[in-house]
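Hello forum,

I keep getting stuck at the same step: I have a sequence, I want structure tokens, and every attempt I make locally crashes halfway through. Rather than fight my setup again tonight, could one of you with a working pipeline run this one for me? It's a single chain of 407 residues.
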Amino acid sequence: MKRIVLGVSAGIAAYKSVLLLRLLREAGHHVDVIPTGNVENFVGNATWEALSGNPVTSSVFDAVENVNHVRLGQMADLVMVVPATADLLAKAASGLADDLLTGTLLATRAPIVMAPAMHTEMWQHPATVANVKTLRDRSVRIIEPASGRLTGKDSGPGRLPDPEEIFASVQDLLSEPILAGQKVLITAGGTREPLDPVRFLGNRSSGRQGVALAEAARAAGAEVTLIATHLEVPAPHGVSLVEASSALDLREAVFTHAPGKNVVIMNAAVADFRPATIENSKIKKRDETSAPVIELVRNPDILAELVQARSTTENLPGFIVGFAAETGDEMGTVLGYGRAKLERKGCEMLVVNEVGATLTFGQETNNIQVLFADGTDAVSAAGSKLEVARVVIEQISHATKGHAAQK
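Reply #2:
Ran it on my machine without issues. Output:
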């Protein structure tokens, strides 16, 4: 049984939340309903109380002795807002907390799922688009509205999906956590190799995929440590955050935090090379034509080192996942290079994705192939980076169970 907060904001689609509440309760979950102040114009509190079996209020001044605007969020395993109006999305994105629901959204560290519902023009307005992006960047799961008949005669995107669809879309959050009791180390972001005090060699990684992996692993019940190298998105709540900058910093952090972990996911984009020397002052243009010659040296192969260290060092993780950001060329395909890298590195699993100026790095979506050292058939996944991350975590769960059984 999960403890769920079901937030209901004031839209005509609130009636569908009644049916969702019934589905959640029939599945055996405890549900606390928090309507916003105007929801009673659509569905009264008597309905919410009768179906949830719990008292219902939208005010922070009811049951003050329980400090409900904090307590409900702290106790929740999942917070859902169905429907989420444009007004509610704007408040949540801005961190406003003027009622019990928005206060709960700020207080909780549980996964948050929102199902927007509004007229097409409101859904497509730049302000709503920006608010949805902000929430997604904070690891809020947004269920895309359906397209169809709206309140009036108009039709288009903005319709709340049917309750059965919403219920099905959160089953991974309602089922028993597949990585419960596991300790997972994840690296994310792109390393920066300093040239001088103001310049560095870097790459296009935003850290989105690594952050999504951390969020998915945490939702799956794992204790997550995230080593972050220059993220462009916030780290998810509920993980232990370690910061690193260069490849050498990352290597030190990995070997410091890997002992005692069950799984390591090496997602960070690590620079292959670094400047041989770092200038103490900014490199100057000495004349109008000359340019400095910068000598590069190889960075350590952290993934290969970690795999090799298991033969001589106790307490290192038994399951290591590598990532291969590849581009195909006249010598081979992305998948071919990925298979060669899996064999070369010696890790148990490798996630391959094609990268480029407009592919993967910095983008909202990803397209991957998951390869396995034991010969298991490759698994494909495409979609948002969080959707892809859930597939990777699911495959890790399956593979680690088989890995443990073989020992």
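The chain has two domains: 3-174, 183-406. If your local run keeps crashing, start a new thread with the error log.
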